Amino acid sequence: MAHHDRPATLRDVATAAGVHPATASRALNPETRLLVSEDTARRVSEAADRLGYRPNPVARSLRTRRSHSIGVLIPDLNNPLFPPIVRGLEDRLATRGYVALLGNTDADLAKEQLVFDQMRARHVDGFVLATAIAGSPIIAQAAESDLPVVLMNRTAQDYPFSSVSADSEAGERAAVAHMVALGHTRIGHIAGPQDISTGVERLRGFRAGMAAHHLPVGDDQIVYAAGYSMEEGLRCGRELLAARGDLTAIVVANDLLAVGCYGALDELGLDCPKDVSIIGFNDMPFIDRLRPPLSTVRFPHYQLGTEAATLLIERIETPDSPLKILFLAPELVVRGSTAPPGTASEAGSAVPLHRGATAARRGRG
């Protein structure tokens, strides 16, 4: 420290580095560091470290009119899918000096409203929402207030927000194609909630995949989950197998639902994959540790977070930038839960669905 009785100030750092305080401020700010030379930035950074200087976030907020905090709403922090996504988000935000404030909503609209309001009261610079559902009042409020918002892992029709998500429809079509290639023709589907874009898109992908192989889809081949949970997967698995005991394969809209469906097979004394093959969606961490390991559709979780952060930073720092809808390419991951009808399998492989697993972008003015 410059003096034993007080913390080091920006002026102390500037004096130690031999620069003007304004130059020191630019050198220490990730958003303006490129405006000074590498040598100057290094000298200022070394002086700040030597003096133990810590920026005053309140003063900085008053000066820049930014809090450098981002509100992030997650529907269920118990879902293993989200930690790697949030890690990517936080890492990318940190490169521009932003910190993420996480809010878990438990997929409860009242709780989501409370968290959203409290974050707005703390003057966050923008929001990343992984909680979008059809008719959400939060989405409508964000649109009306012109807040910088990016949707993550879900989309919302008719709202002016950039978004990043997996190409769910393409992924589910690939899941169906995999089952058909194994010889299955009696295939059921556990659909996700139809007020969530992923549920709608994956159901559409299932129907399109079945149609592409000229396979009929009756109403009794589809059961709708009320939420993405193991409990709902168990319920839906029971209902589907009670209605169609002749099914040899089930395409499931989410890994947690698939885990619950395993329980339904166990209750009926059925073997997976000998009696019924199951494939999920997401490739959430540790899903390969199940017995049998779950075949699924993978997308890059960490990249989803970094892309969401990049889109939001762009919206904050360049408000007039065009909206972007980003879809990350899915990848079929074949493990032991899928096999030809009447046989077991120890297969394990990953099959990219698009060359290079690249992402598709679409800009909207």
Characterise this structure.
By secondary structure, the protein is of the alpha/beta class. It folds into three domains: 10-55, 434 Repressor (Amino-terminal Domain) (Orthogonal Bundle), CATH 1.10.260; 65-166 and 301-328, 3-Layer(aba) Sandwich (Rossmann fold), CATH 3.40.50.2300; 168-298 and 330-354, Rossmann fold. The protein contains twelve helices and 14 strands. It has helices spanning 10-17, 21-28, 38-51, 57-64, 82-94, 109-121, 137-145, 168-181, 197-212, 230-243, 255-267, 301-317, and strands at residues 69-74, 99-104, 126-129, 149-152, 162-166, 187-191, 222-224, 249-252, 277-279, 296-298, 323-328, 331-334, 349-352, 359-364. The strands form three sheets. Strands 2-1-3-4-5-11-14 form a seven-stranded mixed β-sheet, with helices on both faces. The longest helix has 17 residues, at 301-317. It is elongated. The N and C termini lie far apart (50 Å). The relative contact order is 0.11.
